[in-house]
Design brief:
415 residues, alpha/beta, 3-stranded antiparallel beta sheet, 17 helices, elongated, binds oxidized coenzyme A
Length: 415
């Protein structure tokens, strides 16, 4: 069976996390992704957070599966020639260098466009045009500048970053969408275009409910769905809401049996209005059904923390999986707090290809994430990441270089 992006060639000039997540997604969709790295060093993540000496790190291997690797010294005139040959042959160039680095290599948009007017040039940058456009940015900078950190954590604590890499992987995902759309538009215009995904913008897109709440707060002065209501104070900006959903379906994280010794024996419990009766009956609080303080979603809002406290007395008597089973019988939305260990070992995630084990020539077997988007006509086989420069000769030969020319490039340390 074919793949959605069969025939699409990607010149992958990405490094670290944000760009590589984008090109890995495109590779999973079937694109031929050629990752360009610096000879000798390669992507800096190959050597970061190493758990096995001398072997590509999990940081690298989990972001660069299904790609080919070629090494080129982009500053060497002969290396630049190889790059230009790749520009002519590929459909998309993806990069996430610091601001201006691609231009300094001589690969300006104008130059790329003159070599290949059909090429889509896609970039991740920390910020879009404006006061910070020249700044280098890593994940947590984007989380802070995109509104995630100021709205994450508890009211009485400092801003918090989240473990989900919404700045890097989130922006890679945004960029992949832009690339696919630009390729689609090229079908009618015949032209490539520039695609920019700024990490601040990507994080804000994922935090849009907090921008919603900012405007609600300005209009109303309080937000009844937040834990600051009714006893705490609201300032002029959206506060940190702890584990509250802050939306129309109040929720909170509650202790389960074993919480004293296992930091993940917790469950997320949602008091969805249509199942309020089932909640009261399940936890043995039938008197709440006739109590006017709890009768409607609105009347419950000032008592939410007290309600969750009572529900917790029930969840503490069950493991998170027992609670999950009982609550789901009544369609009460809830979610166990799963540790990474539990996720890694979960058979259903292996069965769907969401967690995959692959074999690597120097590392051996390792776990990686698989394609999170499942398509009925574009199956994904997750393959290992390439060794540094593993495909240099193969790609040069595809570009028309003869074996002696390739040997010369090696001898001169161009590749
Ligand atoms: N041959 C020769 N030179 C090469 C090369 C090659 N194959 N590949 C890269 N280089 C050079 C570039 O030309 C550039 O040199 P100059 O800056 O001197 O012109 C340099 O290597 C790369 O610079 P950089 O700014 O991208 O790298 P850095 O390690 O200093 O910064 C990062 C890393 C991530 C902060 C920066 O790339 C960045 O801000 N990127 C955009 C935002 C982003 O994606 N951040 C997420 C990273 S994941 O957490």
């Amino acid at each position: 069976m074919g793949k959605a992006l069969d025939g699409v060639k990607i010149l992958d000039f990405t490094h670290v996390q944000s760009g590589p997540t984008c090109t890995q997604l495109l590779a999973w969709l079937g694109a031929d992704v050629v990752k360009v790295e610096r000879a000798g060093e390669g992507d800096i993540t190959r050597g970061q957070l190493r758990d096995v000496p001398g072997v590509d790190s999990l940081y690298f291997t989990m972001l660069n599966g299904n790609k080919r690797s070629i090494t080129i010294d982009a500053r060497n005139p002969k290396g630049k020639k190889v790059l230009e040959a790749l520009v002519k042959k590929c459909d998309v160039l993806v990069e996430n260098f610091g601001p201006g680095a691609l231009d300094r290599m001589g690969l300006t948009w104008e130059h790329i466009n003159s070599l290949n007017p059909r090429m889509v040039v896609a970039s991740v940058k920390g910020f879009g045009p404006g006061p910070y456009e020249d700044c280098k940015v890593y994940e947590n900078v984007a989380q802070c500048a995109g509104g995630a950190a100021s709205t994450t954590g508890f009211d009485d604590g400092p801003p918090l970053v989240t473990g989900a890499q919404i700045g890097d992987s989130g922006t890679g995902l945004h960029l992949a969408l832009g690339i696919v759309a630009a390729l689609y538009q090229r079908n009618t215009t015949g032209r490539g275009q520039r695609v920019l995904a700024a990490m601040q913008d990507g994080v804000l897109n994922l935090c849009r409910v907090k921008l919603r709440d900012q405007q609600r707060l300005e209009r109303m002065g309080v937000m009844e769905e937040y834990p600051q209501y009714p006893n705490g104070k609201f300032g002029d900006a959206v506060p940190r809401a702890g584990n509250a959903s802050g939306g129309g379906q109040p929720g909170w994280i509650l202790k389960c049996k074993g919480w004293e010794t296992d930091p993940n024996d917790y469950i997320y419990f949602i008091t969805q209005a249509p199942v309020w009766e089932a909640i009261c009956k399940t936890i043995g609080r039938e008197e709440w059904l006739t109590d006017p303080r709890y009768a409607t979603p609105k009347s419950r809002l000032p008592h939410l923390m007290e309600i969750f406290g009572q529900i917790e007395e029930w969840t503490k008597t069950k493991t998170k999986f027992e609670a999950m089973a009982i609550l789901n019988e009544h369609d009460i939305p809830c979610g166990p707090i799963l540790s990474m260990k539990e996720i890694a070992e979960e058979p259903s995630l292996r069965a769907t290809g969401t967690v995959v084990e692959v074999d690597h020539p120097t590392r051996g077997k390792y776990l990686t994430v698989g394609m999170p988007i499942k398509m009925s006509d574009s199956p994904v086989e997750v393959t290992r990441s390439p060794l540094l420069g593993e495909h240099t000769d193969e790609v040069l030969a595809e570009l028309g270089y003869t074996p002696s020319q390739i040997a010369e490039l090696h001898a001169e340390k161009v590749v």
